[in-house]
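Appendix B, Record 12. Input sequence as logged:
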Amino acid sequence: MKSVQLGSSDLSVSPICLGTMTFGEQVDQATAFAILDRALELGINFIDTAEMYAVPARAETYTATETIIGHWLSQRPGVRQRLVLATKVAGPSRSMPWVRGGSADLTGADIIAACDASLKRLQTDVIDLYQIHWPVRSVPMFGGLYFNPSENEGTSIHAQLEALGTLVKAGKVRAVGLSNETPYGVHEFVRLAEQHGLPRIATVQNAYHLLNRSVENALDETLYRLNVSLLAYSPLSFGLLTGKYDTTGLTGPGAPAEARLTKFESMRKQRWGRAAAQAAALRYNALAREHGLTPTQLALAFCYKQWRVASTILGVTSVAQLEENVAVWGTQLSETVLRQVDDIRWEMRDPAM
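Logged structural output:
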């Protein structure tokens, strides 16, 4: 895998990123260590985490993932210098009282304090890519569809950038990014950074997969023209695009008991559990099999080879799953397959957006 540069930063990463939100919930520390070790062996130098993880979010596992990664780094002398380590500060927590008391805002002081806490848990002196997990502004995200201009706004983008600038100046952060952002948000972060000499965002981490290609509805042009890199998360749509639910549904007889959408009711209530998303997944998975591919191969090859995507984030629960997903890297999709993928999208749109 040839490395890619993230935006205008000096970060060079593998085009596959190891996502870690299962660590501390579905994945215990010993298994997490094995996954991290194998990822390095496979040429992955990019690891993404967040203060909020593990997922599904709950008070008992808040910060568990960063803590596990910190233990791993402390037991692997010299490994930190080989890695690009990314983490995220949670946006306004609202429904999560264990995160900053459920605050409906994310202040500059919050950002700085959260970064210091992440550095301590990760047992490192610097975070390579520090991201705001979701906007402070009231925008549609995590399955929401509509912007409501009457809802209160929080800390300004300028103030958030000033806090990030403080962290960069102090040498605690190398580059900054966003997550679950809109075209407007990206433009404002870039505009204000350039206007005030503050850190320019390098990346945006948004969902991008066969069941949600909404990135292609304006955000991709924004990222392209402003030289901001897309980090695509959930390329397998929480397992819907692996085919493992095709014959059983999410909770029917024979459904995989340890899979996220089977195990966690809170996840089924989100965009992944929609009937329309499941129906579309069946179509894409059938298409894969018609062309001699596994559903996983179709879904990952689609993301891996998109010009829009700088790095695809893989969330796994075992070494075997990691190896299977990385092995898809060389898979090429024919023009016929890509045309039929587009035909399904035209009919079924983006049911897991």
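The longest helix spans residues 275-290.
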